[in-house]
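This section describes the prediction task in plain terms. A model, or a person checking by hand, is given the sequence of a single protein chain and must write out its three-dimensional structure as a string of tokens. No templates, partner chains or ligands are provided. The sample shown here is typical of the held-out split.
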Amino acid sequence: MKTIEIKSGQSVYFCTCGKSSKFPFCDGTHKLGNQFKPRFKVYDQDAIETLCECGKCSQFPLTDHPCK
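The expected answer:
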């Protein structure tokens, strides 16, 4: 499983189109003509997020279940 560390006070735009060169973070690639919009999240404490590896998680690119 891949994880990322986010620090308290950070505001993050997560990529939901899967095409960002900075994945899992948004780089604006979605603006090139697809229906995806970034997922915005503000962290009020340090966190370690697990990344989705199956592409089917409802909180993509973050996981909401164990990807297989």
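For orientation: Strands lie at 3-6, 11-14, 39-42, 47-50.
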